[in-house]
Amino acid sequence: MINCLYFRCAGVRLLHLLHVYLVGDHFRGLVHFVMKSLSDYRLSEKSAAVLEFPLTKLPNGYEPWNTIISILPELYRNGSLRDYVSKLPLLSVDNLHSHVELRLAHKILAFVTSAYVWLKGETDKPKSIPAQLAIPLIETSEKLGLHPITTHQDLVLGNCLYVGENETPRLIHAPTHHAGWKPFIELGGRIEIAFAPCLPAILKAIDAQNPLDVDRITHSLGQISKVFESMSECIHLLYEQLDPREFYVDMRPILSGWSSGLYYEDVTGLSGDHPHHDSGSMWELFEICSKFSSQREEEKNRLHWTKCGSVHLSTSC
Known about the structure:
The protein has helices at 10-22, 63-78, 81-86, 99-118, 131-144, 152-157, 181-194, 198-207, 214-241, 244-251, 284-292, 299-309; strands at 128-129, 160-161, 170-171, 263-264. It is mainly alpha-helical. It has one domain. The strands form two sheets. It has a two-stranded parallel sheet. It has a two-stranded antiparallel ribbon with strand order 2-3. One of its GO terms (cellular component) is cytoplasm.
């Protein structure tokens, strides 16, 4: 069920439309095709897929979740997270109605769950996720169309405070105490924001295909190429500021999901008791560009993106 809801993710809905329009044969014969506005896909001309106004706290009634996310790095550092989680109450997500409330709830639950699972590494990985995390995590995941793990939407897109154009956004929450999260998340957000001017240019280029307007398409492609120059500067900053050893040894496990499967306590309706979820961290901007250019990447190209992009960790949502 979670996999079927993949295309309900706002940015991915745009990717799906781009793919169908540019690649899908059954769309070729249409005389008129009108793209919706960026806001319909929860995208912004200012911040791209990064939320312009993310919440930092959930409303009254969710104090236990607000508290645990605020002290999560310390709980992870001192090894007391699992004991703390065992005392958490089971909260319903029924009182969370807005998209930004659900996004924050998913981020909190995903961060805590990932930290809970990988607290002691592979040597002492739990066999199950406790109900007070599992039930609301699955429910928010279904409402948002996200996997019940730490996704790129949690880590970066809903976890940066937008400051302004050409400015590095500010980190809201870190999954653990490791210093590398700050440059990884903030510069990841800056790269996403730097991509924002590409979005209207892509829509204009699509619109200019029918009727064909070569000059307009050429101008749009020129705008897109300039944006990639500024994005490359941000990637170089990421290389400079992120300690590779800390990332691969201490941070990456938090992004790794659980490929061997875990039991979600008291959760019904899942396809199997031990769902498998690989890494959920992925940059939508790379996928948007891929769909726009009608490219179907070979496996070797995916490996190339992994090396050059530094943060394209998986092909999962």
